[in-house]
Amino acid sequence: MAKFSWRQGVMALAVVPLLTLAACSSGGGKTETSNAGGGGAVADTPRLKVAMITHAAAGDTFWDIVRKGAETAAQKDNVELLYSGDAEGGRQAQLVQQAIDQKVDGILVTLAKPEALKDVVKKAADAGIPVVSFNAGEDQSKVMGAITHFGQSDKLAGVTVGQRLAAEGIKHPICVIMEQGHVGLENRCAGVKEEVPGSEILNVNGADMTSVSSTVTAKLQSTPDADAIIGLGAPFTLTIVKSVKETGSKVKVASFDLNGELAKAIEDGSVEFTVDQQPYLQGYGAVDTIWLNKVGGFKVGGGQQVYTGPAVVDKSNAVDVSKFAQAGIR
């Protein structure tokens, strides 16, 4: 794959003033239309209708950042963005089918549950609707018919975390998976274990933060030789931090992903570091890829994955990153 900085590509494409958009939380199974207006110049290309369908669980602020990037690109590209999400694979597949029935100009979809989505994604591609996958499912993206994938390699991100922990002498980290069956989360923990063989997986119910807290607390109390614990998403890591403090555990806390509160936790030392997959770029790049494909037949990345991470955030750069995180862009 040729070396290509998507950050440079985004800057090159953003030749018009951008409208600042407030991030919105997803509703399970509900489709929402974004028609940003006023403010910036808009591409003079024909109006496109693009569906973005995620596996977002209610209350997960990560998806607000993805959506913010997507809406910013949609405003610039004269795109009507139809946003929906559902954490259950079968219902997510139904949302993709609805987009096909609406004869949208493009579909952006996460592939956290590829088995549930493979038939309907192929159906979209066979119908001539360009599909861009993002965030999850990079290993399945091409074979399922997507023209490219935006995101990090979750396995590589896990390896990055594992290498960092191993360098600090960590021997028995606990990797906390908040959604069983999510291939990306499983790959993250597999990457950690590849570098730190003593890693242990703890499954929690990510839909219930009280349950997450109690499960983590019980595990820390019953595992005195644990020396680190890893959250796979910012809100979950912050809940883990509270459990660590309440139990008086001396384990180090590491994370995947980022939000403003987590950036502050890195600054104050409650969290050692995180690996940021830069979700704003995922949303922005996915929308832009459909637009580029429609106006010029372009294939961003030559049909291969476009990496948006992993980007390590620790005390050395947390202050600089924090200002963007507070604005909901990182």
Task: Considering the chains and any ligands shown, give keywords for the structure.
seven-stranded mixed β-sheet; 2 domains; six-stranded mixed β-sheet; Rossmann fold; alpha/beta
Strand order of the largest sheet: 1-3-2-4-5-6-12
Q: Would you tell me the overall average pLDDT?
A: 88
**Count of helical stretches:** 11
Tell me the CATH topology of the largest domain.
Rossmann fold
**Extended strand count:** 13
* Alpha-beta classification: alpha/beta
The proportion of residues forming helix, as a percent range, comes to 40-55%
Topology:
Blueprint: H1 6-13, E1 32-34, E2 48-54, H2 62-77, E3 79-85, H3 89-101, E4 106-109, H4 114-126, E5 131-134, E6 148-151, H5 154-167, E7 173-177, H6 183-195, E8 200-203, H7 209-222, E9 228-231, H8 234-247, E10 252-256, H9 260-268, E11 273-276, H10 279-296, E12 305-307, E13 311-313, H11 318-326
Parallel strand pairs: 2-3, 2-4, 4-5, 5-6, 6-12, 7-8, 7-9, 9-10, 10-11
Antiparallel strand pairs: 1-3, 11-13
